[in-house]
Amino acid sequence: MSGAATAAAPACYRVQPGGRIAGALSVPGDKSISHRALMLGAIAEGDTHISGFLAGADCLSTARALEALGVRIARPQETEVLVHGVGAQGLRGPATALDMGNAGTAMRLFTGLLAPQRFNSTLIGDASLMRRPMQRVVVPLAMMGAQIHTHDGRPPVEITGTPQLRAIHYSLPVASAQVKSAVLLAALAAAGRTSVTEPAPSRDHTERMLSAFGVELEREGRSVTLEGGQTLKATRVAVPADFSSAAFFIVAACLAASPSLTLTNVGVNPTRTGLIGLLRRMGADIRVRARTAAGSPGGEPVADLEIRRSQLQGITVTAAEVPLAIDEFPVFFVAAACATGETLVRGALELRVKESDRLAAMAAGLGTLGVENRLLPDGLWIRGAEGLRGGTIDSRGDHRIAMAFAVAALRASAPIEILDVANVATSFPGFVATARAAGLGLAAL
Ligand code: S3P
């Protein structure tokens, strides 16, 4: 796949205080859906055409890993991808370790995809990914008969290919789309019917996309069941704009829209849009205009969002609400910091094992900006502030922490400098230009 190289990533952002947010914007394609379209396209029969693909570093890691497994992938344009499927048995053993970069989704889903192959493989990643927990995928896959070795539950993930895994019934201890998806991918090659039950709904892109590739699966309540040995048939996937990228501008508009901001063609799968409900409870004015009745060809609903400025009030977020807004908490905490009153989030332990410890990173950064907050073992308490101070924030190399603090500048009294921002390119190539077009006074240095 050509054209993977991008311009040198900036090291830091300097964001001027204040500003007003307005206009109509589109953000890049959905990361979760782009990973899945590549992987399912690779093991399907025939050629899969992906439009709206996210050409961010994470998805490019998935594409390169698939190429190393013998899959031909063409990218005729930045966001158009053609995957020449090799079929269920067609992947080849890689010559070297597969590098997942910063992409946790890639590492967890590949573990499920590669466990039942006839060859061995090793998965590695960058410094952040090498610290992240993998035991959560190893446990159910080992129950299926997979042979996977980690180092104290962390990468490298060394997989001894074990064709013909057993089907299992697995109850996830924590709501995790990545674990659910890893089991479902392994289940495609297992003998019998595998079912996975979640304690609370997590994003269901894998289920929707498996259906789009012709796989029969049963969904009942919080369980999904599929029979192994089914053939995937290539299809067309139109990837909607990533709700998690849109989230930065949804909050920015709540804080400073004048008169309003429209975000077009955004994926509004209900397992992703928990942030809208949280912000509306805080008093936000967010209008959702469905774009198609039946959704995009990948089975995903799409809408335009229109957001107006509003005075937000603090709320209490319960554990059950966390999975549906899991990646939006960094920017949600910025909204809470600018709201009247107190906000409390509990049951969000998972935020500690994302690209960074997002509870600690946000608590520290908000403290720098003069926002009173208390870091809890599984959450964060915040007292909203009238205005924020400027200051220097360490994003800890976490894309979502970096982008969240860029939004905070809208309510700051002095510039905010955000360090270690190169990883914004993992999920949101073009963030600087989009943020500037929206009205943020952001410069990349
Ligand atoms: C993802 C699932 C979520 C999310 C991650 C992407 C996916 O992780 O945080 O950014 O694409 O399946 P968990 O399912 O582990 O919570």
Task: Give the topology, please.
Layout: E1 12-16, E2 21-25, H1 31-43, E3 47-51, H2 57-68, E4 72-77, E5 80-84, E6 98-99, H3 104-114, E7 121-124, H4 135-143, E8 147-151, E9 154-160, E10 169-171, H5 177-187, E11 193-197, H6 205-212, E12 217-220, E13 223-227, E14 236-238, H7 243-256, E15 257-267, H8 274-281, E16 285-290, E17 302-308, E18 316-317, H9 329-337, E19 342-345, H10 358-368, E20 373-376, E21 379-383, E22 391-394, H11 399-408, E23 416-419, H12 424-427, H13 431-438, E24 441-444
Parallel strand pairs: 2-15, 3-14, 6-7, 10-11, 18-19, 22-23
Antiparallel strand pairs: 1-23, 1-24, 3-5, 4-5, 7-9, 8-9, 11-13, 12-13, 15-17, 16-17, 19-21, 20-21
Helix pairs in contact: 1-2, 1-6, 3-5, 4-5, 7-9, 7-11, 9-10, 9-11
Can you walk me through this structure?
The chain is built from 13 helices and 24 strands. By secondary structure, it is an alpha/beta fold. A four-stranded mixed sheet has the order 22-23-1-24. A four-stranded mixed sheet has the order 2-15-17-16. The longest helix is centred in the middle third of the chain and has 14 residues, at 243-256. It is globular and about 60 Å long. The structure holds shikimate-3-phosphate.
